[in-house]
Design a protein that fits this description.
The chain is of the alpha+beta class. The protein is built from eight helices and ten strands. Strands 1, 2, 3, 4, 5, 6 and 7 form a seven-stranded antiparallel beta sheet that branches. Strands 8-10-9 form a three-stranded antiparallel beta sheet.
Length: 261
């Protein structure tokens, strides 16, 4: 895996790229803007923020997974150095238990945070693995802390950011927990990821699904064969359409009814 900053902060501000999530729709926005009033605004972000760092998909020798195109952004149990916001692409979050068994504990999409829980733990609680060519904004924690000492408003903005993130993750977890059947679980999952991506794309019915079926099955706790059967069933019932990596939800009402059963 390699990280490279291909745009400076100035260029990132002046030239919007449709590939990237808009800053106004990003969870990191609270600490990425100048603080103070319009007449006396202070921009400290150059001290702790690197925008739009490209995460390449060169094979990493440390990657413990069976997908050579994946790249690790940060690894579980390593000391915290930075927190991240996804600018583009999708990340999967992988966590090993004490026995070394790995499971997928979540996914992150454009505008969402990663590693914010490590601010308390001081080590990363999971590994973040890029699925394809992605990019992130990177906030260096020590530098952010130093700036927060000088500007208490920045510290308040960080608290607001973490509180909002906690609320959002609780909502995402509630969306797919407690489902009575695999059909309900899959419907809830597809609705959830499309709704989350809509904050970036503006389209809550279509998503480029870079997550493999194996990863989806692992996250949902079902066999891959079961997932494939359900996806075929949903297509036959005209609930969804799958064209390569493009997933389209054809019947939102029916899927919502199914997810609430």
């Amino acid at each position: 895996m390699t990280l490279s900053s291909k745009t400076t902060k100035k260029n990132a501000t002046q030239h919007k790229h449709p590939r990237y999530v808009d800053c106004d729709n990003c969870s990191m926005q609270a600490i990425c803007q100048p603080i103070g009033s319009d007449n006396q605004a202070i921009d400290l972000t150059n001290n702790y923020l690197t925008r739009r760092v490209e995460v390449s998909t060169e094979q990493s020798s440390s990657l413990p997974l069976n997908q050579s195109t994946d790249a690790i952004l940060f690894e579980q149990a390593k000391p915290l150095t930075a927190i991240f916001a996804v600018c583009s692409g999708t990340f999967k979050l992988c966590q090993k238990n004490d026995e070394g068994v790995e499971r997928i504990v979540g996914f992150r999409f454009p505008g969402e945070l990663m590693a914010e829980d490590a601010l308390f733990l001081e080590t990363y609680n999971y590994s973040a693995v890029a699925l394809g060519d992605n990019s992130v904004c990177e906030v260096f924690v020590d530098s952010l802390s130093a700036c927060s000492q000088l500007a208490p408003e920045l510290q308040q903005n960080l608290i607001q950011l973490l509180t909002k993130q906690s609320y959002e993750q609780q909502r995402n977890a509630q969306a797919i927990t407690g489902k009575k059947s695999a059909d309900c679980l899959l419907a809830a999952f597809l609705l959830n990821i499309c709704q989350r991506n809509a904050k970036h794309s503006g389209n809550e019915t279509t998503i480029e699904l870079t997550i493999s079926r194996q990863d989806i099955a692992c996250f949902l706790g079902m066999r891959r064969e079961t997932l494939s059967r359900l996806l075929s069933k949903f297509q036959h019932e005209q609930l969804i359409s799958l064209n390569g990596k493009q997933l389209t939800l054809l019947s939102l009402n029916h899927l919502k009814q199914l997810s609430n059963q």
